Amino acid sequence: LSTFQWPNPLLSYADNQLYEGPLDIVVQGCPLRDNTTISAQWLRIAYHDMSTHDVDSGTGGLDASIMYELDRPQNVGEGMIQSLQDFNGFELTTPFFGMADMIALGAVFAVVGCGGPVIPFSAGRVDATVAGPATVPEPQQDLASHIESFRQQGFNETEMIALVACGHTLGGVRQVDFPVNCNGYLDRCRHKKILYSVSQYLQNTTQDVLVVGPNVTTQSDLRIFSSDGNVYHAKVRTFSPSSSKFSDMNIKSRICSLLSVETFSDTCAALFQRMLNTVPSTVNLTDPITDPFQYVINDPLFSYQNGTFTMLTALRVVNPSASATVNMLWADQQGASFCSSTGCSVQSSRSQPVFFTIVGVAQGFTASRYFFNATINATSSISKFWFEVNNNDGSDPVIVDNGGSGFVIEQDPSLSLFVDVTRSEGIFLETPTTFSEFFKVVVAVLGDATSATASMTGFQSLSAATAPPFTPTTTSISLELDETNPPEGGFIFFTANVSTAVSFLDITANVGSTSYTVNNFNLGAAADFLAFIEVSS
Ligand code: HEM
């Protein structure tokens, strides 16, 4: 299992969405929609979005430019808009994880949801703000144009054949826009979703309109699959060493039995991964996530009261032993000696099983999350924390210390400017005629009221637009001194009512000539730890 180096907001968010996020629900079990599957729609939009890549200039690629390209004939189909509506509706984009990352994540879930391989996921794509070139291949184009399109997208001829086969075995061709019978899945195959066009093409009975459609010019799959003299498909046939054994079976079941699921899966996974990671050359993606990080923490949350900080955090442990107990330890600030040399320590207050997405389940992982509520002397404060996982089986405890450095708390800004999670709350406001919900966010600033000011911006993922492009909004939220939380322990408290649609906050405080900034505070995640109160008026 991989180790995670904290802090890395993008990588931890990517792991969280891939293994614990809610998006997979939509494609779990490969459900049908609009004469096809949602998975096929999500995979196709990823390919079409990527198709704007130009390997020569290093521009375009998977960048969500598809949101601005839907009026083109090459992007015909309700599936495109529906897919983007799916992604918008989940409100999962963040200031650093945009629609392009959502499209890639969707494709990963789509393939697994239909029983396909797990594609290692990288994040960090950058969303385009305008349309890219109209370079999606179309069925009526000739083979030379297709070869050139794929070259431009970074794929050679062999890869083109394989990628089209991989894509079109998951997808079909819908009758609405491409009228022909398309009930093409090979149900009896274990890997039923991955052989649609390859096998039908091989047995000459395909109903894939792109192979035998009424219009010769749109038989692009036929041209592509036969463009190498059927070498790729001959290879498909010879994946199994004992192919002659099955010579009396019809070709459909022969392919089902002979084709090595692993080889086909590996080829498709590798090509899909390259497809999803085709981005402008200026974009840097994270290393691929191939398995859940063994240990990841919840970003610590703080509050201050009566001379103590309360710090909330949690540790996710993958494949934990059933008898494990976990302690959090911390060291105080240099020079302070409240904690002993071995550190202050607290045992986890509770643990709960982690419910993995279809990706984690497919990979066979389990995990538990251990929660901590540490009371920290505010004078000696905290410089870093770490964990001890004790399996209680006589073995030495495992020290989880972020690669040796510990999880370091910078005083500035962590303990000079923070959202105070005990003083903040979720509020259900009920009047005789309305019901509303918002956060009362309380921000603690180390300083005095005469010299301190604070301001905040909120990030809202959900776009209210009825049609793409779906883009997030950022609004400034004014912070006022909080009369219900008078100054205490050197801190003053500001407050604002914040819509529950806001998921991330950037906060700045100026104290005299000193400026503190907290960027990308995950309000959505912190909300799990806020008290919710009901107010009637
Ligand atoms: C020469 C290249 C290609 C051509 C001409 C082509 C053409 C088409 C056409 C005409 C459809 C039917 C669309 C509809 O029914 O609305 C389709 C569906 C699809 N294509 Fe391609 N395609 C190409 C390459 C690819 C590649 C490389 C992928 C890789 C992921 C891919 C994935 C899909 C999927 C998943 C569907 C099914 C979509 C659905 O059911 O909603 N295609 N393609």
Automatic annotation (TrEMBL):
Keywords: Heme, Iron, Metal-binding, Oxidoreductase, Peroxidase, Signal. It comes from the Eukaryota. Its EC number is 1.11.1.-. InterPro entries: Ccp1-like, Haem_peroxidase, Haem_peroxidase_sf. The keyword Ribosomal protein does not apply. It is an enzyme of class 1 (oxidoreductase). GO terms for molecular function: heme binding; metal ion binding; peroxidase activity. It comes from Gymnopus androsaceus JB14. One of its GO terms (biological process) is cellular response to oxidative stress. This is Peroxidase. Belongs to the peroxidase family. Pfam families: peroxidase. The keyword tRNA-binding does not apply. Residues 32-171 form the Plant heme peroxidase family profile domain. Transmembrane segments: none annotated.
